[in-house]
From TrEMBL:
Gene3D superfamilies reported in the protein's UniProt record: 2.70.98.10
Family of the protein in this entry: Belongs to the glucose-6-phosphate 1-epimerase family.
E.C. number(s) listed in UniProt: 5.1.3.15
KW Membrane (keyword) present: no
The keyword DNA damage is annotated on this UniProt entry: no
Enzyme class: isomerase
GO biological process: carbohydrate metabolic process
Keywords of the record: Isomerase
SUPFAM superfamilies, A to Z: Galactose mutarotase-like
The protein, known as: glucose-6-phosphate 1-epimerase
Source species of the chain: Gossypium barbadense (Sea Island cotton)
Origin organism lineage: Eukaryota, Viridiplantae, Streptophyta, Embryophyta, Tracheophyta
Length: 308
């Protein structure tokens, strides 16, 4: 812990994988695992967990952890040559001891950790594009959480990828929440072979399985959780699409790493670039995303931002 009360502690999880606990002076915290470079926990200064993680999650590479904020890269979904949601989420990342500098605002007053993923030889066999994926996870003195990602193309040819920040929000009850900001948008419905529909309702509510990618959404979205009196405000930049997923009852029972009833306590709302993959020319590109911050009591914000 330094003088400002910001702390960064590295410990081992039960599998011997490093995990990093970021803490701020008021007691808010975030836990990040090198397994998937995944944020597994984000707690307010009152100790309330804001992210869902399944009680049946498997914390052992190569499985992806069911919960938190898995990073789906270099593919989101099943379309493409790779396994669903790409491989970044089930690889072991390393701590990046010497990251290229970021803007001073991205470090000042924050407890943070820099992580790095490079493809293994086996990864290159299935996705022949060399890259460095740098992820900074920040926890501010106010308890804000932000994820800043930078992807470097180290081939001599461009490559394209899709990406999503697969954010599992912890909610009181799926039947009680509503999502605003996606109305009137077109979406691809994974339950209907990605057929394109237009959202008709004023707000999105949930009474059965939902598995959609909303296209070209505006940058402000809100998830209202009435029972918990909690609102997540989502502000994003640069990531045009939004995945919305809840498996509901039947699919929950089919997933080995998910409790039969847990669909009631989670909702995934994911900032993504899916419909139009991102193409990176050789060299650096900035990709900043996933700023999560409690604004005031019982109100939380999540912003995704992408910068080129
Ligand atoms: C969602 C997809 O983003 O992730 C769903 O749209 C999928 O189709 C879900 O079932 C979970 O995927 P996975 O690979 O983590 O089980």
């Amino acid at each position: 812990m330094n003088n400002s009360g910001l702390a960064v502690e590295v410990s081992k999880d039960r599998n011997g994988t490093d995990q990093i606990l970021l803490r701020n002076p008021r007691g808010a915290s975030a836990k990040v695992s090198l397994h998937g470079g995944q944020v597994l926990s984000w707690r307010t200064d009152r100790g309330e967990e804001l992210l869902f993680t399944s009680s049946k999650a498997i914390f052992k590479p190569p499985y992806a952890v069911r919960g938190g904020i898995p990073i789906c890269f270099p593919q989101f979904g099943q379309r493409g040559s790779l396994e669903q949601h790409g491989f970044a989420r089930n690889r072991t990342w390393i701590i990046d001891e010497n990251p290229p500098p970021l803007h001073a605002n991205d470090a000042c007053g924050k407890a943070y950790i820099d992580l790095l993923l490079k493809p293994s030889e086996d990864d290159l066999k299935i996705w022949p594009h060399s890259f460095e994926f740098r992820l900074r996870v920040n926890l501010t003195a106010d308890g804000n959480l932000s994820l800043i990602s930078r992807i470097r193309n180290i081939n001599c040819k461009p490559f394209s990828f899709s990406i999503a920040y697969h954010t599992y929000f912890s909610i009181s009850d799926i039947s009680e929440v509503r999502v605003e900001g996606l109305e009137t948008l077109d979406y691809l419905d994974n339950l209907y072979q990605r057929e394109r529909f237009t959202e008709q309702g004023d707000a999105l509510t949930f009474e059965s399985e939902v598995d959609r990618v909303y296209l070209g959404s505006r940058d402000a979205i809100a998830i209202f959780d009435h029972e918990r009196k909690r609102t997540f405000f989502i502000k994003k930049e640069g990531l045009p699409d939004v995945g919305v997923w809840n498996p509901w009852e039947k699919k929950s029972k089919a997933m080995v790493d998910f409790g039969d009833e847990e669909y009631k306590q989670m909702l995934c709302v994911n900032g993504a670039a899916v419909e139009k993959p991102i193409t990176l020319k050789p060299g650096w590109r900035g990709l900043a995303n996933g700023i999560v911050f409690p604004n005031r009591r019982l109100t939380y914000r999540l912003a995704w931002k992408m910068v080129f």
